[in-house]
Design brief:
The protein is mostly beta strands. It has a single domain, classed as Porin, CATH 2.40.160. Helix content is 3%, strand content 59%. The strands form two sheets. It has an 18-stranded antiparallel barrel. Strands 9-10 form a two-stranded antiparallel sheet. Strand 9 and strand 10 form a beta hairpin. The longest helix is centred in the first third of the chain and has 8 residues. The chain starts with 16 loop residues before the first helix and ends with a strand. InterPro entries: BBP2_2.
Length: 438
């Protein structure tokens, strides 16, 4: 198993600075959890990490510094490299549904990755699937799949990245801002990502454009059909990040100004409720420090706003994106992250909610091929009206890099849920996994 916090450390190469500025890099760290049903169900955590445009740069840390004798093998196909793998897992979850339905589970997750780096152009393609069966709760079983394609190339001294992805996923009722579904809710995501990066200089510009379409299926709530098509939406976001070297071009300390504008269109109405179309934006000011072997950080704070076209409550809230990496020794890496942002609410009649997610974790190399991971997260959804939802979790895991074709993992998560969908409850889960690759 690839430890989830491995994607958090900051880039060392400024030409790759685009990687770490993606909010997905922060969210992947803040949402890290070995049990997928227990984490916040924000879409950033689902995008493939091996495709340009969706990737999160790993830098050099305990988990990314895999030894040559245990690095995944690949199959050369001319200039391309093919890497197929399959992960088999078995585990136990004490609360498949909120406070009930304990069950053993099995998961089969095959994937294939194709990469190429030739003449300054980087290509990446991923196809993956995950079939999870709950033995004592078969109606909660799911099959998800993802396909993505991306490229990064030089254009007129600038670096351009383009990517597309399709995801077929399920939303459960143990995550953040989830309803009391009888069965997991199927939904699909189509995503387009475009970004540019100006040549290395004291002032670096990074424009971006994201277009995402969400399509929701039907589930049941309380035994009654509950179509969720009112949540279908098309979301667009324009962004511009300005990064300025404080002492000059080569200064690892850089000031940041982050500008974002967004809008969404909801094509379907639910009975008695108007669509939740909105326009909004965000301004954040921050500072970042390139990972120098010991420290790396990024701190950005600002304001975000949403104005709805229908009589929903407009929102103006403080936002934050903070990340810290500390490597006190060659065998230990600490990570911390906090993200605060406005998210689309699942409940009809509610425009949006504020998601605040924080995490702290440590990866320690017990020996050359054995990595220990310990971490804790807090996730909170705050609404303009109604009670907030909070999930506090702790986790521990061990990853054994057996050789270049085999990984063994053991993970345990304990979490406490407090929210509006059910009475407070605790959830305990563990997972044993075997990953084989070529």
């Amino acid at each position: 198993m690839r430890m989830p916090w491995a994607d958090f450390p900051l880039c060392q190469n400024r030409r790759q600075r685009r990687c770490r500025r993606h909010l997905a890099a922060l969210l992947l760290a803040a949402l890290a959890s070995p049990m997928p049903d227990a984490r916040a169900q924000l879409i950033e955590s689902a995008y493939p990490r091996d495709v340009p445009g969706f990737d999160a740069a790993a830098g050099v840390s305990v988990t990314s510094r895999i030894q040559t004798d245990t690095a995944w093998q690949t199959i050369p196909l001319g200039a391309e490299l093919l890497h197929p793998e399959v992960k088999e897992s078995t585990g136990y979850d004490s609360a498949v549904l909120p406070g009930q339905r304990p069950s053993w589970s099995t998961t089969t997750a095959p994937s294939v990755t194709l990469t190429s780096a030739d003449g300054g152009t980087t290509l990446g393609a991923v196809a993956s699937a995950a079939n999870t069966r709950y033995l004592q709760a078969p109606d909660q079983s799911t099959t998800d799949w993802t396909a993505a394609l991306g490229a990064s190339f030089d254009l007129a001294d600038c670096r351009v990245t383009a990517a597309v992805a399709h995801l077929a996923l399920h939303e459960t009722d143990t995550g953040l801002d989830a309803a009391a579904y009888d069965t997991p809710l199927p939904y699909q995501v189509d995503a387009l990502r475009l970004s540019g990066l100006s040549p290395p200089a004291r002032l670096v510009l990074e424009p971006s454009f994201h277009l995402t379409r969400f399509t929701f299926g039907t589930t049941a709530i309380g035994g009654l059909p509950a179509p969720q098509s009112y949540r279908d939406r098309l979301v667009g976001e324009l962004g511009l990040t300005l990064s300025y070297g404080i002492m000059g071009f080569s200064d690892p300390n850089r000031l940041q100004l982050i500008l974002r504008g967004a809008g969404a269109h909801y094509p379907n109405e639910t009975f008695g409720q108007p669509p939740r179309d909105f326009i909004g934006g965000a301004v954040l000011l921050g500072v970042e420090h390139d990972l120098d072997g010991i420290w790396g950080w990024r701190i950005a704070m600002g304001l975000g706003t949403r104005v709805y076209s229908q009589p929903y409550l407009d929102q103006t809230v403080p936002l934050a994106e903070m990340a810290l990496t500390w490597q006190p020794s060659a065998r230990t890496t600490w990570h911390a992250a906090v993200v605060r942002k406005i998210e689309d609410a699942q409940e009809d009649g509610v425009g949006g909610y504020v998601a605040t997610i924080g995490g702290l974790a440590v990866d320690h190399e017990l020996d050359r091929h054995l990595i220990l991971h310990i971490g804790s997260d807090i996730e909170r959804a705050t609404y303009a009206a109604g009670p907030a939802q909070t999930i506090v979790s702790g986790r521990a895991g061990v990853l054994w890099l057996v050789n270049a074709m085999l990984r063994l993992g053991a993970d345990m998560t304990v979490s406490s849920h407090h929210g509006f969908t059910a009475a407070p409850y605790d959830e305990n889960a563990f997972l044993l996994s075997v990953t084989a690759g070529l």
